[in-house]
Write a structure and sequence with these properties.
The chain has a single domain, classed as Alpha-Beta Barrel (TIM Barrel). The protein contains 12 helices and 14 strands. Helix 8 runs parallel beside helix 9 and helix 8 crosses helix 10. The two termini are about 15 Å apart.
Length: about 325
């Protein structure tokens, strides 16, 4: 089965169709993290290759822990220098902060100043930071530390979710949803994911997702890359981002929850102007607005898995 594309040429979906609107800058590459757990030179080389590939427009930020920024600089410096006069884009980074945010924010600022002078390989800039927070009070405190020019995503457990999201909204920051892991119990229920998205929509809080979203549609896969890995049902990134876009445009949470659990590719129909799921349609402008202002991106330790699956569905 494949997703139905109602148009004359497949390539125009990626270039100009609604699938292109939905997928642009969607995948933040997190190859340093489990289950891939790549070393820094390999992850940097991969991102370098992806950023020059046919599918570079789907690629978002390079995700790196703040403690490994020095290691990242060394690996970046080992890449081949750009040709003289070549237009080389600056790498966009999203940095995970840890237990000492005051010192770590200072490190990020120093990194950005230092990398601004690098021209031979394009350099890099930290555009966003991600940090775990256990309470609304901590979110407010951290927001006072992190400069406003850094887009900030707060991650926490679902406990006291409403107070937490309200605090994120009050601070003008963003939320982060963990959608999986290396064990079945790390995957939140569809109802839990839907409630998170609904609360973010109500509070007008943009969000990103991370972990477990390697495949477009909800389906059963191995949870790690080990040969003896157990399998489990994983959320699909098309499910998550389309459910968010439909919800933002007025769909009921109950119906959007059904979309979140949809496993049949044939009930999705893409064309140049919109997408249809069952009898419900969403226009390209609505998807574009949702991606820009609400459902921002997701982190994945693999870029090739999502791309390969999208190609199998004939969305690329």
């Amino acid at each position: 089965m494949k997703v139905e594309i109602l148009q004359t040429t497949r390539n125009s979906v990626g270039a100009a169709g609604v699938a292109g609107v939905l997928l642009r800058d969607l995948i933040d590459y997190a190859g340093l993290f489990a289950p891939a757990s790549l070393d820094m030179p390999t992850a940097v080389a991969n991102y370098h290759a992806y950023s020059r590939s046919e599918w570079r427009w789907v690629l978002g930020h390079f995700v790196v822990p703040v403690a490994r920024l020095g290691e990242f600089e060394e690996a970046l410096a080992e890449l081949p220098a750009a040709r003289p006069g070549a237009n080389v884009a600056r790498w966009r980074l999203s940095v995970l902060l840890g237990s000492d945010p005051v010192a770590e924010v200072a490190s990020v600022r120093e990194f950005n100043v230092r990398m601004a002078t690098v021209t031979s390989i394009g350099g890099a800039v930290v555009e966003s930071v991600e940090i775990k927070a256990v309470s609304a009070e901590q979110i407010r405190w951290l927001s006072g530390i992190i400069p406003s020019e850094l887009t900030t995503y707060f991650e926490t457990s679902s406990a006291n979710c409403w107070d937490w999201i309200a605090a994120v909204a009050d601070c003008g920051r963003r939320a982060k949803l963990r959608t999986g892991g290396e064990a079945a119990d790390k995957f939140p229920s569809p109802a839990g994911v839907m409630e998170f998205i609904r609360r973010c929509s109500t509070a007008k809080v943009p969000f990103k997702a991370t972990a477990g979203l390697h495949h477009p549609l909800r389906s059963v896969h191995r949870l790690t890359y080990q040969p003896d890995s157990p399998s489990g049902i994983m959320h699909g990134f098309l499910n998550v981002f389309l459910a968010a876009a439909f919800l933002r445009s007025g769909m009921t949470p109950e119906l959007a929850g059904e979309l979140l659990e949809e496993q049949r590719p044939e009930v999705f129909r893409f064309d140049l102007d919109g997408v249809r799921w069952r009898k419900h349609r969403l226009g390209a402008n609505e998807i574009d607005a949702a991606r820009r202002r609400f459902a921002v991106s997701f982190g994945s330790c693999s870029f090739t898995e999502p791309i390969d699956d999208l190609r199998c569905l004939h969305l690329l």
